[in-house]
Amino acid sequence: EKERRVKANDREYNAKFSYADNRIKTSKYNIFTFLPINLFEQLQRVANTYFIVLLILQLIPQISSLSWFTTIVPLVLVLAITAIKDATDDFFRHKSDKQVNNRQSQVLISGLQNEKWMHVQVGDIIKLENNQFVAADILLLCSSEPYGLCYIETSELDEVICEPPNNKLDKFTGTLFWRNHKYPLDNEKMLLRGCVLRNTEWCFGMVIFALQTKLMQNCGKTTFKRTSIDKLMNTLVLWIFGFLVCMGVILAIGNTVWESLVGKDFQVFLPFDDSHTNAVFSGFLTFWSYIIILNTVVPISLYVVEVLRLGHSYFINWDRKMYFAAMDTPAEARTTTLNEELGQVEFIFSDKTGTLTQNIMVFSKCSINGQAYDIYDEFQQKVEITEKTACVDFSFNPLRDTKFRFYDGRLVEAVKQEDPSVQEFFRLLALCHTVMPEEKYENLVYQAQSPDEGALVTAARNFGYVFRARTPENITVFEMGQPVTYQLLAILDFNNVRKRMSVIRNSLGQIKLYCKGADTIIFERLDVCGLELMDITSEHLNDFAGEGLRTLALAYKDIEEEYFEVWMKKYIFVSTVIENREDQLAALYEEIEQDLKLLGVTAIEDKLQDGVPETIARLNLADIKIWMLTGDKLTAINIGYSCNMLQDDMSEVFIISENTLLEVQQKLSTKEHIVGLSRVSSATDVKSDIQLYPDSVFEEAIIAEYALVITGDSLAHALDPGLRLVLLDVACLCKTVICCRVTPLQKAQVVELVKTHKKAVTLAIGDGANDVSMIKAHIGVGISGQEGMQAVLSSDYSFAQFRYLQRLLLVHGRWSYFRMCNFLRYFFYKNFSFTLVHFWYGFFCGFSAQTVYDQWFITLFNIVYTSLPVLAMGLFDQDVNDRNSLRYPSLYKPGQMNLLFNKRQFFLCTLQGLGTSFLLFFIPYGAFCVLLKEDGSNFSDQQAFAVTIATSLVIVVSVQIGYDMHYWTAINHLFIWGSIAVYFAILFAMQSNGIFGVFTSYFPFVTSRNALSELNVWLVILLTTVVCVVPGLVVSFLRVDLFPTETDKQVRHLQLRKRQEPQEQSLRRVRRTSSRRSAYAFSHQQGYGELITSGRN
């Protein structure tokens, strides 16, 4: 579709183009397609497909020594759990789709009649009323407002030609044809689906896009983000499968040799059947038999980790310490796949405005015609503003905003004295904007697109230039109480490329252009006669920016009527062009926005959010590097100091603001050399200090020497393919990086650069639409702030305040990583312990592919006997509580270094499982060779031997997980010891005479229960359990003493503190009995005095 042609209320004409209807469908399945599609999706997992193949092999009698249910029961359970989760998710999608599709709209079809949204078609005329949702992307035709747009009667509307459906929310290009005239259509004349009609009684509009709305075009498929553990698991599953094949080959060779040397002697009473033609073929069949028997070494139930991730997500959602009561906003985990990745973050990329700051703007200071308006003392030193500082009296203005505060009374006097520059300054602020006024309870309220605009218009209002009303053609301003109406000739709107906004107004035949924007953009377009004023104003601007204030430059231009008429004709023509309209408009804007006269600059304060400095300091101690990516300039540097990203004791703050590729290259090379030399020179000192003070944070502090600040223009050159790695090297050697004046695309490029080349886990956090591309790069966190929900809707996690990030990472992220790693290590250990017993048994059963255990035990071991304890560990275990996780940020480092689960840890788990399986088999085997029953007979039956090993296995793995558990709850006790009780209950139930009598072929183990009545058998079980568990205990104790981890050190430190606390309390009680009083009015306990005076964070 190259262009869209629409006629109003002409369904027959519009049907020729086969436009999509308005029915939305976000669900994936229906009743008939759920089973086949979901099964197909699950079979994309290699392990699931592998077990399907195993099931088919088990149906072949010649190679299967296990019943089909030993594989199908666990497989069906895993598939069912995943299917239920998918079905539940899709049910809510169906419910949401149905709710939206059945909403009612009033459609003009031979009179107004109600239609469901899903029946609305392109070209329909629909009526909207106040507070109603917009059903589709519609072209506004008329409204109840006094000056509402009203083009024509629909019967006379010829045609609309516009761009095809796209995802650009801020852009629309079209042309309206009416009575042989063409009229331009842009985004301001569109109402987009998902919006709500406010402050308007009614309006009519024509549907342009139905299903293919801009909102739906922005809801594309979310890229699937996989964690590093997921990627490692795929590799390990392949390794395990290779190990399985090796064991199968060894046992198959053993079978071939045994059949050749020994088996032939048994053929007299155990002859080969027709399928066994020779020993080699017997070995071939045995290989497949052992692949089936040993299949549990590939853990299908491991994929139930999705249950753990779901649980971890709910813990985030339920965390009341991340709930922001002021906005009634809880934290929300919008994905379940990245939780453990939160415990491995190395780089954080943060926006500034609205993320680190509150995004609540207050007009603070200004400079007009070279005069700075700020408060100074008698020595011309700036006075710090406090709550006791007297503010300006605005009582002369009955239309003032009573919440507004300003402290320099000279500006009010200048307004009252009718200073022309001051008048023009506030007149510009009252006219150059897109704010909408509204009367609420007899109070004037401004609805602004951005907090900046609202702050500037409110400032003009308090100084006597009150913006009261607007129509498409006029703006009414009360200037010192007198109403003045200005004709609005054109609005040259703001965008990220222009970085400025202009309006052209006409009053009494005098045409003027008012422009406000970024200082660098405005200064480039000033008349050469105003350079002296520009220099003075620049000094004021730098002072304001140095205080962390957001600055804008203001300028104007007188326009001759003849010139404007020519320009306006070109503007009208270009506005109706479909192709390349934006570029042609930009060129026209550039033409008229030249030779401006500077009025002054504004300075707006945007305060830091609560807890930002403390959060950044704590994340720095966790070895997380924080980069600020912002569209602001010098204010970013000051905010960097305010929030502890930049510090006074840094060796140097590198500022790169060059404009050419060569200059940027030279600057980066120089900085790389300086930083590299300092690292080399300090290396030996660092080693000695770390040896003397192993528990100190000195190792963390050595990277606190340098910071890098780079502007957007320089960054564009630094991201050149030949220079980007140099930039990355320099940036990663600095503690802090601040990128100023960057575009949304550059934000995403910086994140991708680090993610790709450093192979690190990155997190991006922002609150606005310009942060979406950055947030989608890896782990994305959205702030529910003042700039809408775009960032939140694109994020993986969301909350209301930046300070909650420390809890998300240092508590929930670290716990998720810790739990997942412990879960995986234990899971592999228990599965190898369980499965490899068959391998040892193969050497004593003639490699005949017979199983040690009862087939029901094989079926239930993973899904009943050991599933709940490992889930309890994966959901509830914690080495330290949340308070200590925040108190000791260095506990976060093992996740960054990937220490808790990696290929080495997997090898150790495999080795432990191999050793446990060896002991589980050979201790009972050796004991049964010499044991006698109480009646003097031998233990000669295989069933008693199997039950002894199975019971020992269940007890060993339960004791092992009990020892590995760090945090005990009632649920843990119930699941661990309850699983052992369930094992014995099922064991005696399955081996009862009643079950055997009904299902003889399925429950043949009936004599084995008698073995558990023998004391000697229990002694063998006890001996096996002790020998299996004790080596692990010894190794753990030695490791903690000889090679303690960071967690071990902190836990030991906490234990020492707990032991000392009772002594300290008793000492304090003794002191209270003394008559001597202390002269101090604060606690004698050690505080943060040394930390504060040291200048560190």
From TrEMBL:
Record's subcellular location: Membrane
- Gene Ontology CC annotations of this record: plasma membrane; trans-Golgi network
Q: Which residues bind ATP?
A: 351-353, 453, 494, 516, 550, 630-632, 741, 747, 770-771
Question: What's the Enzyme Commission number for this chain?
Answer: 7.6.2.1
Q: Which GO terms describe its biological process?
A: Golgi organization; phospholipid translocation
Q: Where does Mg(2+) bind?
A: 351, 353, 767, 771
How is this protein named in the record? Answer: Phospholipid-transporting ATPase
Active-site feature positions: 351 (4-aspartylphosphate intermediate)
Please give the catalytic activity noted in the UniProt record. ATP + H2O + phospholipidSide 1 = ADP + phosphate + phospholipidSide 2
Cofactor field: Mg(2+)
Domain annotation P-type ATPase N-terminal: ranges: 6-72
Q: Which residues cross the membrane?
A: 43-60, 66-84, 236-258, 278-305, 823-844, 856-876, 906-925, 945-963, 975-1003, 1015-1040
Cite the P-type ATPase C-terminal domain residue spans from the record.
Answer: 792-1045
Q: Which Pfam families match?
A: Cation_ATPase (PF13246), PhoLip_ATPase_C (PF16212), PhoLip_ATPase_N (PF16209)
Question: What family does the database annotate?
Answer: Belongs to the cation transport ATPase (P-type) (TC 3.A.3) family. Type IV subfamily.
Reading the lineage from the top rank, the first entry is: Eukaryota
Under Gene Ontology molecular function, one entry of this record is: magnesium ion binding
